[in-house]
Amino acid sequence: MSSSTTPVLPFAQTLATISRLPRIGIVCGSGLSTLVSSLKNVVQLPYSQLQGFGESTVVGQKSMLAFGLMGKDNVPVVAMLGRFHPYEGHKPIVVTYGIRIMKRLGVKDVIITNAAGSLTPDIPVGTIVVIRDHLALPNLTGMNPSFGPLMSQEYARFIPLGDAYSPRLRRLAFLASHYLKFDSSALAEGTYAWVAGPAYETPAEGRFLRDAGAHVVGMSTIPEVVAAREEKLEVMVLSLVTNTVVIPDTYRSIKAEVEAELAGQHVELPSMETASHEEVLETGRQKAEVMRSLVERIVELVPAN
Ligand code: HPA
Protein backbone atom coordinates (compact mmCIF):
# COMPACT_ATOMS: atom_id res chain seq x y z
CA MET A 1 0.00 0.00 0.00
CA SER A 2 1.03 3.67 -0.14
CA SER A 3 4.13 4.65 1.75
CA SER A 4 3.39 6.54 4.97
CA THR A 5 6.23 9.04 4.41
CA THR A 6 4.94 10.52 1.12
CA PRO A 7 1.80 12.62 0.92
CA VAL A 8 -1.24 10.79 -0.42
CA LEU A 9 -3.10 12.74 -3.09
CA PRO A 10 -6.83 12.24 -3.18
CA PHE A 11 -7.90 11.57 -6.74
CA ALA A 12 -9.84 14.83 -6.97
CA GLN A 13 -6.56 16.70 -6.47
CA THR A 14 -4.82 14.45 -9.01
CA LEU A 15 -7.47 15.06 -11.59
CA ALA A 16 -7.15 18.80 -11.19
CA THR A 17 -3.61 18.50 -12.63
CA ILE A 18 -4.63 16.86 -15.94
CA SER A 19 -6.21 18.65 -18.86
CA ARG A 20 -8.50 15.93 -20.32
CA LEU A 21 -9.94 12.76 -18.84
CA PRO A 22 -8.53 9.61 -20.46
CA ARG A 23 -10.47 7.59 -23.03
CA ILE A 24 -8.01 4.70 -23.27
CA GLY A 25 -6.13 2.96 -20.48
CA ILE A 26 -2.78 1.25 -21.04
CA VAL A 27 -0.93 -1.12 -18.72
CA CYS A 28 2.81 -1.35 -19.40
CA GLY A 29 4.56 -4.62 -18.54
CA SER A 30 8.23 -5.41 -17.89
CA GLY A 31 10.54 -3.16 -19.90
CA LEU A 32 7.63 -1.53 -21.77
CA SER A 33 7.24 1.66 -19.74
CA THR A 34 9.15 3.69 -22.36
CA LEU A 35 5.70 4.10 -23.86
CA VAL A 36 5.52 7.27 -21.80
CA SER A 37 7.84 8.92 -24.36
CA SER A 38 4.86 8.88 -26.78
CA LEU A 39 2.82 11.12 -24.51
CA LYS A 40 2.35 14.85 -24.88
CA ASN A 41 1.34 17.11 -21.95
CA VAL A 42 2.37 14.28 -19.68
CA VAL A 43 1.58 14.31 -15.97
CA GLN A 44 3.29 11.50 -14.04
CA LEU A 45 2.23 10.60 -10.54
CA PRO A 46 4.16 8.12 -8.40
CA TYR A 47 1.93 5.36 -7.07
CA SER A 48 3.26 6.21 -3.60
CA GLN A 49 1.34 9.50 -3.81
CA LEU A 50 -1.92 7.93 -4.92
CA GLN A 51 -4.41 6.61 -2.45
CA GLY A 52 -5.04 2.87 -2.85
CA PHE A 53 -2.12 2.06 -5.16
CA GLY A 54 0.55 -0.39 -4.11
CA GLU A 55 4.28 -0.16 -4.88
CA SER A 56 5.57 -2.33 -7.72
CA THR A 57 8.59 -4.25 -6.45
CA VAL A 58 9.62 -5.83 -9.77
CA VAL A 59 12.97 -4.72 -11.27
CA GLY A 60 12.39 -3.02 -14.64
CA GLN A 61 8.98 -1.61 -13.73
CA LYS A 62 8.40 2.03 -12.81
CA SER A 63 5.74 2.82 -10.25
CA MET A 64 3.92 5.69 -11.90
CA LEU A 65 0.57 6.59 -13.32
CA ALA A 66 1.00 8.76 -16.42
CA PHE A 67 -1.67 10.91 -18.03
CA GLY A 68 -1.11 12.44 -21.46
CA LEU A 69 -2.15 12.82 -25.08
CA MET A 70 -1.18 10.17 -27.61
CA GLY A 71 -0.98 10.04 -31.40
CA LYS A 72 -1.69 12.61 -34.08
CA ASP A 73 -5.23 13.21 -32.80
CA ASN A 74 -4.06 13.75 -29.22
CA VAL A 75 -6.15 10.96 -27.71
CA PRO A 76 -6.22 11.36 -23.90
CA VAL A 77 -4.83 8.23 -22.25
CA VAL A 78 -3.78 7.03 -18.84
CA ALA A 79 -0.91 4.56 -18.58
CA MET A 80 0.14 2.41 -15.65
CA LEU A 81 3.94 2.29 -15.77
CA GLY A 82 4.40 -0.89 -13.77
CA ARG A 83 1.79 -3.19 -12.34
CA PHE A 84 1.12 -5.35 -9.31
CA HIS A 85 1.31 -9.12 -9.23
CA PRO A 86 -0.11 -11.59 -6.71
CA TYR A 87 3.39 -13.13 -6.45
CA GLU A 88 4.67 -9.90 -4.87
CA GLY A 89 2.19 -10.49 -2.08
CA HIS A 90 -0.36 -7.96 -3.34
CA LYS A 91 -4.02 -8.68 -2.67
CA PRO A 92 -6.44 -8.85 -5.65
CA ILE A 93 -7.86 -5.43 -4.72
CA VAL A 94 -4.40 -3.87 -5.26
CA VAL A 95 -3.61 -5.94 -8.38
CA THR A 96 -6.81 -4.72 -10.08
CA TYR A 97 -7.01 -1.24 -8.55
CA GLY A 98 -5.58 0.59 -11.57
CA ILE A 99 -8.19 -0.94 -13.86
CA ARG A 100 -11.00 0.07 -11.50
CA ILE A 101 -9.65 3.63 -11.37
CA MET A 102 -9.43 3.73 -15.18
CA LYS A 103 -13.12 2.85 -15.39
CA ARG A 104 -14.03 5.61 -12.95
CA LEU A 105 -12.00 8.13 -14.96
CA GLY A 106 -14.13 7.37 -18.02
CA VAL A 107 -11.87 4.90 -19.86
CA LYS A 108 -13.72 2.66 -22.35
CA ASP A 109 -10.93 0.53 -23.85
CA VAL A 110 -7.85 -0.93 -22.20
CA ILE A 111 -4.65 -2.10 -23.86
CA ILE A 112 -2.73 -4.40 -21.54
CA THR A 113 0.86 -5.34 -22.37
CA ASN A 114 3.09 -7.96 -20.83
CA ALA A 115 6.23 -10.00 -21.31
CA ALA A 116 5.63 -13.69 -21.88
CA GLY A 117 7.44 -16.93 -22.61
CA SER A 118 6.68 -18.81 -25.82
CA LEU A 119 5.44 -22.38 -25.62
CA THR A 120 5.83 -23.10 -29.34
CA PRO A 121 8.61 -22.74 -31.93
CA ASP A 122 5.99 -21.14 -34.22
CA ILE A 123 6.16 -18.02 -32.04
CA PRO A 124 9.82 -16.94 -31.72
CA VAL A 125 11.31 -14.42 -29.28
CA GLY A 126 10.48 -10.85 -30.32
CA THR A 127 7.00 -11.69 -31.66
CA ILE A 128 4.06 -9.68 -30.34
CA VAL A 129 1.11 -11.98 -29.67
CA VAL A 130 -2.39 -10.52 -29.86
CA ILE A 131 -4.16 -12.56 -27.20
CA ARG A 132 -7.47 -14.09 -28.24
CA ASP A 133 -8.15 -16.34 -25.22
CA HIS A 134 -6.66 -17.37 -21.91
CA LEU A 135 -6.08 -20.40 -19.75
CA ALA A 136 -5.89 -19.36 -16.11
CA LEU A 137 -5.31 -22.29 -13.80
CA PRO A 138 -5.19 -19.98 -10.72
CA ASN A 139 -8.65 -18.63 -11.64
CA LEU A 140 -10.01 -22.15 -11.74
CA THR A 141 -8.65 -22.95 -8.30
CA GLY A 142 -9.72 -19.99 -6.17
CA MET A 143 -7.35 -17.16 -7.23
CA ASN A 144 -9.88 -15.35 -9.41
CA PRO A 145 -9.60 -11.68 -8.36
CA SER A 146 -13.38 -11.49 -8.01
CA PHE A 147 -13.56 -14.50 -5.70
CA GLY A 148 -15.45 -13.51 -2.54
CA PRO A 149 -18.18 -10.98 -1.71
CA LEU A 150 -19.28 -8.69 -4.56
CA MET A 151 -17.55 -5.29 -4.40
CA SER A 152 -20.75 -3.64 -5.57
CA GLN A 153 -24.29 -4.84 -6.21
CA GLU A 154 -23.88 -3.39 -9.72
CA TYR A 155 -21.40 -6.08 -10.65
CA ALA A 156 -22.49 -9.39 -12.12
CA ARG A 157 -21.88 -12.32 -9.77
CA PHE A 158 -20.78 -14.51 -12.68
CA ILE A 159 -18.42 -12.75 -15.08
CA PRO A 160 -18.65 -13.96 -18.68
CA LEU A 161 -15.20 -14.33 -20.24
CA GLY A 162 -16.08 -16.06 -23.52
CA ASP A 163 -15.89 -12.64 -25.17
CA ALA A 164 -13.07 -11.19 -23.03
CA TYR A 165 -10.75 -10.27 -25.90
CA SER A 166 -12.43 -7.65 -28.07
CA PRO A 167 -12.41 -8.61 -31.79
CA ARG A 168 -12.88 -4.90 -32.56
CA LEU A 169 -9.62 -4.00 -30.79
CA ARG A 170 -7.72 -7.07 -32.03
CA ARG A 171 -8.56 -6.11 -35.60
CA LEU A 172 -7.00 -2.70 -35.00
CA ALA A 173 -3.75 -4.32 -33.83
CA PHE A 174 -3.31 -6.07 -37.18
CA LEU A 175 -4.32 -2.96 -39.13
CA ALA A 176 -1.84 -0.88 -37.12
CA SER A 177 0.91 -3.42 -37.85
CA HIS A 178 0.09 -3.18 -41.56
CA TYR A 179 0.13 0.65 -41.55
CA LEU A 180 3.48 0.59 -39.72
CA LYS A 181 4.79 -1.73 -42.46
CA PHE A 182 5.76 -4.40 -39.94
CA ASP A 183 6.59 -7.79 -41.41
CA SER A 184 3.57 -10.08 -41.20
CA SER A 185 5.54 -12.34 -38.80
CA ALA A 186 5.86 -9.47 -36.27
CA LEU A 187 2.38 -10.14 -34.89
CA ALA A 188 0.78 -13.49 -34.07
CA GLU A 189 -2.43 -14.58 -32.36
CA GLY A 190 -2.64 -16.93 -29.43
CA THR A 191 -3.82 -18.07 -26.03
CA TYR A 192 -2.15 -16.78 -22.85
CA ALA A 193 -1.63 -19.14 -19.92
CA TRP A 194 -1.58 -17.35 -16.57
CA VAL A 195 0.60 -18.89 -13.90
CA ALA A 196 0.95 -17.47 -10.40
CA GLY A 197 4.78 -17.56 -10.49
CA PRO A 198 7.27 -16.37 -9.41
CA ALA A 199 9.19 -19.48 -10.51
CA TYR A 200 9.57 -19.99 -14.25
CA GLU A 201 8.04 -23.19 -15.59
CA THR A 202 9.71 -26.55 -15.46
CA PRO A 203 9.87 -28.36 -18.83
CA ALA A 204 6.98 -30.60 -17.72
CA GLU A 205 4.85 -27.57 -16.78
CA GLY A 206 5.64 -25.93 -20.11
CA ARG A 207 4.62 -29.06 -21.99
CA PHE A 208 1.43 -29.33 -19.92
CA LEU A 209 0.41 -25.75 -20.76
CA ARG A 210 1.27 -26.22 -24.43
CA ASP A 211 -0.69 -29.46 -24.65
CA ALA A 212 -3.61 -27.73 -22.93
CA GLY A 213 -3.73 -25.25 -25.82
CA ALA A 214 -1.71 -22.23 -24.65
CA HIS A 215 0.82 -20.47 -26.91
CA VAL A 216 2.47 -18.13 -24.40
CA VAL A 217 2.77 -18.06 -20.62
CA GLY A 218 3.11 -15.24 -18.12
CA MET A 219 2.59 -14.19 -14.52
CA SER A 220 0.39 -11.13 -14.94
CA THR A 221 -2.51 -9.60 -16.86
CA ILE A 222 -5.35 -12.03 -16.22
CA PRO A 223 -6.51 -10.48 -12.92
CA GLU A 224 -6.59 -7.15 -14.80
CA VAL A 225 -8.58 -8.71 -17.65
CA VAL A 226 -11.14 -10.19 -15.24
CA ALA A 227 -11.52 -6.84 -13.43
CA ALA A 228 -11.80 -4.98 -16.75
CA ARG A 229 -14.57 -7.30 -17.92
CA GLU A 230 -16.31 -6.98 -14.57
CA GLU A 231 -16.13 -3.21 -15.17
CA LYS A 232 -17.47 -3.71 -18.73
CA LEU A 233 -14.35 -2.33 -20.41
CA GLU A 234 -13.21 -3.58 -23.82
CA VAL A 235 -9.87 -5.35 -23.58
CA MET A 236 -6.89 -6.00 -25.81
CA VAL A 237 -3.81 -7.84 -24.57
CA LEU A 238 -0.45 -7.69 -26.35
CA SER A 239 2.20 -10.15 -25.16
CA LEU A 240 5.80 -9.54 -26.13
CA VAL A 241 7.60 -12.87 -26.34
CA THR A 242 10.81 -12.34 -24.38
CA ASN A 243 12.03 -15.94 -24.05
CA THR A 244 11.20 -19.45 -25.01
CA VAL A 245 10.02 -21.93 -22.41
CA VAL A 246 12.27 -24.95 -22.73
CA ILE A 247 10.15 -27.96 -23.65
CA PRO A 248 12.26 -30.96 -24.65
CA ASP A 249 10.10 -33.54 -26.40
CA THR A 250 12.50 -36.26 -25.34
CA TYR A 251 14.79 -36.29 -22.35
CA ARG A 252 18.30 -37.68 -22.58
CA SER A 253 18.61 -40.53 -20.15
CA ILE A 254 21.32 -39.82 -17.60
CA LYS A 255 21.04 -43.46 -16.53
CA ALA A 256 21.95 -44.66 -20.04
CA GLU A 257 24.80 -42.12 -20.26
CA VAL A 258 26.30 -43.24 -16.97
CA GLU A 259 26.15 -46.83 -18.18
CA ALA A 260 27.92 -45.76 -21.39
CA GLU A 261 30.50 -43.86 -19.35
CA LEU A 262 31.13 -46.91 -17.17
CA ALA A 263 31.57 -48.94 -20.38
CA GLY A 264 34.42 -46.60 -21.32
CA GLN A 265 32.65 -44.09 -23.60
CA HIS A 266 33.12 -40.34 -23.33
CA VAL A 267 29.82 -38.63 -22.43
CA GLU A 268 28.98 -35.02 -21.77
CA LEU A 269 26.16 -34.03 -19.51
CA PRO A 270 23.37 -32.13 -21.30
CA SER A 271 23.52 -28.34 -20.93
CA MET A 272 20.32 -27.16 -19.27
CA GLU A 273 18.74 -23.93 -20.52
CA THR A 274 16.27 -21.92 -18.52
CA ALA A 275 14.48 -18.56 -18.55
CA SER A 276 15.78 -15.57 -16.59
CA HIS A 277 14.41 -12.14 -15.69
CA GLU A 278 17.51 -10.52 -17.29
CA GLU A 279 16.63 -12.16 -20.62
CA VAL A 280 13.03 -10.98 -20.25
CA LEU A 281 14.15 -7.39 -19.56
CA GLU A 282 16.72 -7.40 -22.38
CA THR A 283 14.16 -8.48 -25.01
CA GLY A 284 11.75 -5.94 -23.54
CA ARG A 285 14.38 -3.21 -24.03
CA GLN A 286 15.14 -4.31 -27.60
CA LYS A 287 11.48 -4.41 -28.60
CA ALA A 288 10.18 -1.51 -26.50
CA GLU A 289 10.20 0.83 -29.50
CA VAL A 290 8.25 -1.64 -31.67
CA MET A 291 5.66 -2.10 -28.92
CA ARG A 292 5.51 1.67 -28.30
CA SER A 293 4.87 2.48 -31.97
CA LEU A 294 2.28 -0.31 -32.25
CA VAL A 295 0.33 0.85 -29.20
CA GLU A 296 0.47 4.47 -30.40
CA ARG A 297 -0.87 3.50 -33.84
CA ILE A 298 -3.63 1.37 -32.28
CA VAL A 299 -4.65 4.28 -30.04
CA GLU A 300 -4.92 6.47 -33.15
CA LEU A 301 -7.21 3.90 -34.76
CA VAL A 302 -9.60 3.37 -31.83
CA PRO A 303 -12.72 5.35 -32.71
CA ALA A 304 -14.10 7.67 -30.03
CA ASN A 305 -17.38 6.17 -28.83
N1 HPA B 1 7.12 -17.79 -17.89
C1 HPA B 1 6.29 -17.08 -17.10
N2 HPA B 1 6.25 -15.76 -17.13
C2 HPA B 1 7.06 -15.12 -17.99
C3 HPA B 1 7.93 -15.80 -18.84
C4 HPA B 1 7.96 -17.21 -18.77
O1 HPA B 1 8.72 -17.88 -19.49
N3 HPA B 1 8.58 -14.87 -19.58
C5 HPA B 1 8.11 -13.66 -19.18
N4 HPA B 1 7.18 -13.80 -18.22
Concise account of the structure shown:
By secondary structure, the chain is α/β, with parallel strands linked by helices.
Query: Which strands sit side by side, in order, in the main sheet?
Result: 5-8-7-6-9
Percent in helix: 25-40%
Which structural class do the helices and strands define? alpha/beta
List SSEs in N-to-C order: HEEEEHHEEHHEHEHEHH
Number of strands: 9
How would you sum up the global shape? globular
Given as residue ranges, the uncertain stretches (5+ residues, pLDDT < 50) are 1-8
Q: How much β-strand is present in the residues?
A: 15-25%
Q: Tally the helices.
A: 9
Distance between the termini: 34 Å
Report the average pLDDT across residues.
86
Largest beta-sheet details:
5 strands, mixed, barrel
What is the radius of gyration?
21 Å
Q: Which ligands accompany this protein?
A: hypoxanthine
